[in-house]
Amino acid sequence: MTPLQIGILGCILMVVLLLSSMPVGFVMAVVGGLGFLAVTGNPHAAGAMMVNELHGVFGSHGLTVIPLFILMGQVAFHSGLSRRLFEAAYRWLGPLPGGLAMATVGACTGFGAICGSGPATAATMAAVALPEMRRRGYSMELATGAVAAGGSLGMLIPPSVVFIVYGIMTEQSPEKLFIAGIMPGLMIAALFCVTIYLLCTRRPALGPPAEPFTLRQKLAALGGIVETLILFTMVIGGMFFGWFTPTEAAAAGAAGSIVLALLKRRLAWAGLQRALIETVRTSCMVMVIVAGALMFGRFLAITRIPVLLAQGLSALPLPAALVMAGIVGFYLVAGCFVDALALVLLTIPIFDPVVRQLGFDPVWFGVMIVVITQMGVISPPVGVNVYVVSGIERDVPLQTVFRGALPFLGALVVSAGLLIAFPAIALFLPEHGPRALRFLAAVALGIAFQSLAIAIAGRLSGSRLPAGRSTAAAVATTALLVMGAATGSAVQPFGGVWIGLGVAACLAVVLARRILERRWIQLAWPMAACAAATVAAWVTVVSKALPGAALP
Prior knowledge:
This protein is mostly helical. The protein has 26 helices and no strands.
């Protein structure tokens, strides 16, 4: 048999073994070792390959980031950090329709910044948020769906175990991948909140709003996120500015989480023991999967399947974008049946050469893979996060959790489309460094301008808009302006269209009621305020942040 035929048979055997419920790491190791033996015909070479890969993984200095980041998340959980994050998000978002579910998404985003695992984030927030949502009369369909979907953010918000493994497999910088996941992660969290808001606006019984908190109570709750901000800034900021290598950042994060928990006297000896045991158990599982994937990758390499596939796909008379769409479709379907980490490890040796041959950025592709596999962890029949939530809330039927998670698939599809249309969402921070931070600060200032002006316009028109709605309008209109600048139209006459869209978005929120009531005389001042807010945001974001040029 030729090496190509052996490679195809090996892939078929791997699928059969996976369907038999054999552990993924062992499947890839067995198929990789037997396939290497079949191709080379040399038992000593096959044995040496397996031993070298095992030793290389478990003795690798670079891979110590995995247990260290896992330890950071475990210590944060056992010290009660997840509950404090949820309380802070609840006080700010609770009074909105579906506010408690939005708070769950916000807490998942914060906890994902120190956890790195989607199922772990879902399990943690299910234990914290579901009892509170049940007590507040929330539909358990929405509650469990929000936890399952929000938990998937742990895969994308850095530090992410999937990004670490992807970086190892493709020889990409883990810090670049981490930084590339920040803006897409925040975008998806915002889209999840929009989904909840729309569902609860249409059907208020799904998530009744809570009683509003005072400003003092809201500010007091912000103390619960200080530890998260310290750890996230130390780890990701340290890598971003070149102060730490990924391994050093992971060590600093793990040590910092223990020190903060001890200083606040929130970590008992029993909690530290449980954190260490869970870290060892999870780390060993991940390491075995990585070792098995490397063995399987070595087997595929000598069969030349990845090279032949890359050459064949690149030679097709099809646009590169269409080929990429096919790859994305494959991940979308396969993610419904295979665990996210296992899917990345199984397929990267095959698709990485294809992506490079087609000219796509491997960092952007890594973010795309994680976003698409996020869909898989909440999709039937093997939605890992759904099973995790169902296992914790045993009185809620599994099909109810799946139904609750389905609306969030739409948000993930939209986010994947935005990443394809605007790759800068993922690549802006890693490519432009501190300049990108200056730009984001200007965007935040532009949003503040918008929010204040919209609130004033609401009062002038008699609408008295809630702060949350005016801020949402500010975010939406500033996003339109940024998209216009990012596509280069800010320095062209066509840029006026984006300004017009921004003004229209403001008016749609502020003046909808007055337009329906045909109270035209009251519209002049609000229209002027909205236009001024939009232009002010435009000037702030483009002219002040990046003088004399549109966004990169």
